[in-house]
Amino acid sequence: MRCALKIAAQIFVSILVIVLSWSTAMAQAPTLDEQLRAQYKVVKMGSDSHGPAVVEAGTVLKIQKGGILSVPYSDVSVTPTHYQNGQVKTPNALFQKGLGFGMKKFGKEQNTHLFPVGDKVYPSHIDVNANKDTVTMGIIACDSCNNTNPTTFFKADVVFQFAKGALAKTNASEVEDTIGQLFAIDEGGDQQGGGDQQGGNGGQGNNQTAQAGPGQQQPQQPGPPPEPAQIEKGQTPDQVKGALGPPDKIVNLGAKQIFVYKDLKVTFVNGKVTDVQ
To answer: What is the pTM of this model?
Structure first.
């Protein structure tokens, strides 16, 4: 009898340890919402004497496909644009006319706008609805990026529709790939400005060389550029640090980790590189 009780107690303890371990793992695992918000930093908006204003910039996204319907920042309601199977589904013209008619009843003009390809925007909110298999991303025009003056801050909602039951078994990287078909993360804005400045300095350097007299020592020609750093899938964080140096920021989401550098982001899952943007 004692032996049976002892065995039963051991079985109970083993089951309890398994349940507690599973609960701890589930509690530590980041949700899809958290992973997406770590990848796409939302903009913080406020106001100044001129009207709406960006308080804290978010991740800059570059629009890859046209047809996203937007409305002025002051509008309360936003009619979402849907994205499914690689296609942008713009709200139909009849609805847009009805929306404009409704606004006129309140003494306002409805000014809708279709974002063109290449325009840059900030994410304003991200909402995951696993029951409907949708991810909704709000966007706001990055007017400073687009050289829009006066500012408009047109805004839109885009609903990414996934197959039934897909979000329950899809990882964040696959969702980000789908979002990337429509919104590519823009990493080149600062680089382009720096390149222009460097180009100007380079021109001045060439003029100085041409004006140098025969008795003056000519500057040494630069040697061949160093081999570029290579990042590959499956590399460890230490290997990436060895190639690129310490990151500017580290986003730690348990099993998923993101190294943020000035001009790219490296994503690790379970200690291995899975994506570079």
So the answer is: 0.57
